[in-house]
Amino acid sequence: MADLSTVLVTGAGGRTGQIVYKKLKERSDQFVARGLVRTPESKEKIGGADDVFVGDIRDSSTLVPALQGVDYLIILTSAVPRMKPGFDPTKGGRPEFYFEEGAYPEQVDWIGQKNQIDAAKEAGVKQIVLVGSMGGTNLNHPLNSLGNGNILVWKRKAEQYLADSGVPYTIIRAGGLQDRDGGIRELLVGKDDELLQTETRTIARPDVAEVCIQALKYEESKFKAFDLASKPEGVGTPTKDFKALFSQITTRF
Ligand SMILES: NC(=O)c1ccc[n+]([C@@H]2O[C@H](COP(=O)([O-])OP(=O)(O)OC[C@H]3O[C@@H](n4cnc5c(N)ncnc54)[C@H](OP(=O)(O)O)[C@@H]3O)[C@@H](O)[C@H]2O)c1
């Protein structure tokens, strides 16, 4: 039997994280899946198996058991903005958002990701895949003013920390995430937010999940950072050759 790789996905109760966890479980001939979630409720939500660890990325000590014996880490944790109550879409205007105390992007997207990178390095993890967001080259991006969180700034800082860590890495800066079927669109990789200036700047969550897993299989994905989006369904050819996709990327950051 081929050697199985043990993969931990954090944020495994999140919208993309749970797709990664499920895909890994379905590929038990290649991977031993593990998940990290923040609460017992999230653990139940994704099936409650023993391979789901409960921990908080802001507390390094809770990451150690989950990372023991892990070959690959996929980071899908993120600060989650909450909508302020009282917004009435019928009255027009825009909803307002906030972050819970202690769960600002600085604590989650910076300190939390840094804690994971440090703990993974300590545990001898062979590669770290980090999902971030497009838009990070623009300090004035509207997402930064959301809840006064500067979320893209803190995400970018964590990406830089990973790129400097010495651990082989793949940084995926996704475009606008959509809850649609995956595997049916041509994927596009880019750099420096150039895709944001085009009409093709969204991607289905299952496609992001697939790229995270495929990144573990090809050397061409390592020491790379890239933007990720897709063509609309029916335009172009659905991406099947991930080695070729990763080979197109020339940017280390
Ligand atoms: N939304 C977009 O259009 C968009 C575009 C580009 C990139 N992205 C990025 O893509 C990534 C995936 O997005 P998504 O929408 O799939 O994610 P999501 O559903 O918001 O999931 C984020 C996960 O992080 C977990 N988390 C937060 N704080 C934590 C902590 N302290 N300890 C442990 N876990 C914690 C959350 O757990 P709980 O469920 O317990 O809160 C949640 O499951 C994120 O980095 C996101 O910023 C999003």
Automatic annotation (TrEMBL):
Occurrences of domain NAD(P)-binding (ranges): 11-217
Pfam families the record matches: NAD_binding_10
Molecular function as annotated in GO: oxidoreductase activity
Gene3D superfamilies listed in its UniProt record: NAD(P)-binding Rossmann-like Domain
SUPFAM superfamilies with a match to the protein in the record: NAD(P)-binding Rossmann-fold domains
GO cellular component: chloroplast
InterPro entries referenced in this protein's UniProt entry, alphabetically: NAD(P)-bd_dom, NAD(P)-bd_dom_sf, SARED1-like
Protein family (similarity comment): Belongs to the NAD(P)-dependent epimerase/dehydratase family.
UniProt name for this protein: NAD(P)-binding domain-containing protein
